[in-house]
Amino acid sequence: xxxxxxxxxxxxxxxxxxxxxxxxxxxxxxxxxxxxxxxxxxxxxxxxxxxxxxxxxxxxxxxxxxxxxxxxxxxxxxxxxxxxxxxxxxxxxxxxxxxxxxxxxxxxxxxxxxxxxxxxxxxxxxxxxxxxxxxxxxxxxxxxxxxxxxxxxxxxxxxxxxxxxxxxxxxxxxxxxxxxxxxxxxxxxxxxxxxxxxxxxxxxxxxxxxxxxxxxxxxxxxxxxxxxxxxxxxxxxxxxxxxxxxxxxxxxxxxxxx
Length: 258
What we know:
This protein is an alpha/beta fold. The protein is built from eleven helices and six strands.
């Protein structure tokens, strides 16, 4: 794990040289709230917003951002896939994950995929902004609670008690897409793999999760997605963005993809 740059060494960027940020999240309201939060800073600017992997890669090519902020759960693909694709296309691009998932296993997967930071969507505004500037400055940032859980797991050798935590990164990607109701063919297209390969992953998932049929696996995945959503409600940035004015030039941020 990279070492986090000391807070005292992180300087605010000059107002006349704003850092350009690509924001990727498939929830319009959340994305708009974060965009307002970031654009309210004098030295930062959201140059593009995207809801899918395809939109994100297109925005990357057009804007060449200084930083990408991504959610791990996207409509058409896994955030882990997006992280790898972004870094493959722009090797020096720092990626910060903003996630509703608190479990350390998500942070570990994101960092292994190349992300430089992992912060909770529920984190205080100050921590989110500090994470952004830390990654822009070449450091890394992991939320304190997640970091403590990761270190505890390393020291004790603890494994996740949740069966989902035993899945490989690729199995997790397939499982997330199953939870969104994607078919085998759609998953194969999203992950650029053969249908036969996805069928093999589905078989492994059924074995690991104790699902006897494909339909049962689908129900397990859907239930897991609901549990994740209900157990990790997003709040902090919304409460902040509610007090911020809408972009005077662009209007309602919900309706725009810059």
